[in-house]
Write a structure and sequence with these properties.
Radius of gyration of chain B: 32 Å
Number of helices of chain A: 10
Mean pLDDT of chain B: 72
Mean pLDDT of chain A: 78
Structural class of chain A: mainly alpha
Order of helices and strands of chain B: HHHHHHHHEEEEEEEE
Low-confidence stretches of chain B: 1-7, 34-42, 82-119, 121-140
Order of helices and strands of chain A: HHHHHHHHHH
Helix content of chain A: 55-70%
Distance between the termini of chain A: 54 Å
Helix content of chain B: 25-40%
Largest sheet of chain B: 8 strands, antiparallel
Number of helices of chain B: 8
Distance between the termini of chain B: 60 Å
Strand content of chain A: under 5%
Number of strands of chain A: 0
Low-confidence stretches of chain A: 1-24, 120-126, 202-207, 209-219
Structural class of chain B: alpha+beta
Strand order of the largest sheet of chain B: 5-4-7-8-1-2-3-6
Shape of chain B: flat
Oligomer: heterodimer
Radius of gyration of chain A: 19 Å
């Protein structure tokens, strides 16, 4: 077993990633204890609970499937190797997010270093690391989406990702238009509630508002 | 300019306005007003996140098992010293105790090798089950003796491994030498310099063109060409007075190896090599994003 990554410390972990809603949705205490004690079944439970969020962070940072795959695997293995230093009294999410972020950034830096040509990595405009707020947003959105009901999540996906109108969603799901509209509104409200903690950024920069706010300050 | 989110007084207002933003965005989905319409309430980052493919993607199938297999392997490697010492204690009264004691130092924690990483998203290659079985505290004596005997036999045959490897290596070298002798001489490659455009000013290198029986082999050895981002790739083309011919595509996400392309038309008639940056899903014609060029004219 490799020693815990010194870069991953409790001080680096965001205090309450995902907010109280995510905390309510955290793993059972017994599972967290078994994870700390090296139980591979507990690792499986941790993977099932956080894989999508870790994957989203890895994709946000690396923007490449093959790198995200490697980053996700390394994140869970690093967490597994460092599990003895984990305090099972605390939520696993912030700790895992920190590891995921460091791991993905490490991989990205490795990719930048391996670019041939002898020039500085920063000159490679095609690959650049996203800001922490974007990584945090990816994590938080995954945490929020997983707490929506399946039918709510599907409406949000069809609306935002597939860019379907309410009428098109109604046709796709064979539902009355009114049902789709009300379901959509409920899903949005629930999503907004689950993401409400994003307005209380540690750096006092609301993630969701940061882009608009920057514009506001600049004008 | 909206700064309502920036100065949001309380959570309820925040939730109300974020809900309204999402509702409004959803109402505009699928309509002609959607593309390019700016976010009214400043929740653009969230909207963008919800519109990203990665947000809705599942981790690859098999990744879970790959991770668990690797964890089990590392776990088994850790418990190996305990297994060895248990075996040594149990078989001490027997004739092979010296052998077990002899092999014990190799299993000390400090010298235990790091387990090889399990390939990504692949089925477990090192099953942990046999080790787990051996690791049981109530190991029967016959089994330990059998294991020790098996090791003794294995040690007697240990010389055969390097000898077999050496014989195999010699055989391979011989086969390759004969094969090479029977091959017709490779035609000499002609090298041309390649240069990056303003989109990839650091790119440089050469392309080696060989006239082969099946076409023209073009080996592009480029330095300083960044890896194509996810969703994009590089495409190589030959251009001449008669049109443009595709040579193949690549992404440069690895390093070290030249890119081998093939052309069915002669560079004499298509003397300009182009490398363009393409977006996946776009039509298979050269994009306007030319990153590398080379003249193959003699």
């Amino acid at each position: 077993m490799t020693p815990p990554d010194p870069a991953v410390s409790a001080a680096d972990a965001p205090a309450d990633v995902g907010g109280s809603a995510a905390t309510r949705d955290s793993l059972p205490a017994a599972t967290r204890v078994r994870f700390r004690d090296g139980d591979t079944d507990a690792l499986a439970a941790v993977y099932d609970r956080y894989a999508r969020a870790v994957w989203a962070v890895a994709m946000t940072v690396t923007r490449a499937d093959h790198l995200a795959q490697e980053a996700t695997q390394e994140t869970f293995i690093r967490a597994w190797n460092a599990a003895r230093s984990y305090d099972p009294e605390r939520d696993l999410g912030p700790w895992l997010l920190t590891i995921a972020r460091y791991t993905a950034l490490d991989l990205l830096r490795r990719e930048l270093r391996s670019t041939r040509g002898g020039h500085e990595a920063e000159q490679d405009g095609v690959v650049e690391a996203p800001a922490m707020d974007r990584i945090w947003l990816s994590w938080a959105v995954q945490e929020a989406l997983r707490q929506l009901a399946e039918h709510e999540r599907e409406v949000v996906r069809l609306s935002f990702y597939e860019d379907l109108s309410h009428a098109q969603i109604a046709e796709r799901l064979s539902l009355p238009l009114g049902t789709v509209k009300s379901r959509s509104h409920r899903a949005h409200r629930r999503l907004a509630e689950l993401l409400a903690h994003l307005r209380d950024q540690p750096e006092s920069t609301p993630v969701i508002a940061s882009k608009e706010s920057d514009e506001g300050r600049g004008s | 300019m909206n700064t309502e989110f920036w100065t949001m007084p309380d959570v309820d207002d925040f939730v109300e306005q974020l809900t309204a933003h999402l509702d409004e965005h959803a109402a505009r989905s699928g309509t002609s007003a959607q593309p390019g319409t700016p976010d009214r309430e400043g929740a653009g980052a969230l909207t963008e996140e919800l519109r990203t493919a990665a947000t809705w993607a599942e981790p690859p199938a098999g990744l879970r098992e790959a991770i668990l297999a690797r964890a089990r392997t590392e776990s088994a490697a850790q418990s190996a010293p305990a297994v060895e010492s248990a075996l040594a204690v149990e078989s001490a009264p027997g004739a092979e105790s010296a052998l077990v004691a002899e092999s014990a130092p190799a299993a000390e924690p400090a010298s235990a090798p790091e387990p090889a990483p399990v390939p990504l998203a692949s089925p477990p290659t090192v099953p942990a089950a046999p080790d787990a079985e051996v690791a049981g505290p109530a190991e029967p004596g016959w089994r330990a003796r059998w294991l020790a005997g098996w090791r003794l036999r294995w040690r007697r045959l240990a010389w055969a491994v390097p000898a077999t490897a050496l014989a195999a290596a010699l055989f391979t070298v011989g086969v390759l030498a004969v094969d090479r002798a029977l091959q017709p001489d490779q035609p000499p490659a002609e090298a041309f310099a390649i240069a990056g455009t303003q989109l990839a000013p650091q790119a440089r290198g050469e392309v080696r063109v060989s006239d082969m029986p099946s076409g023209f082999s073009m080996e592009v050895d480029a330095e300083g060409l960044p890896a194509a981002a996810a969703g994009s790739y590089y495409a190589a083309w030959l251009r001449g007075p008669e049109g443009t011919v595709p040579l193949g595509s690549f992404h440069m996400r690895g390093t070290g190896a030249p890119v081998r392309l093939w052309s069915g038309v002669s560079p004499d008639r298509y003397p300009e090599l182009l490398v363009t940056l393409q977006a996946e899903g776009d039509p298979l014609v050269p994009s306007q994003l030319v990153v590398v060029t080379a003249s193959l004219a003699d």
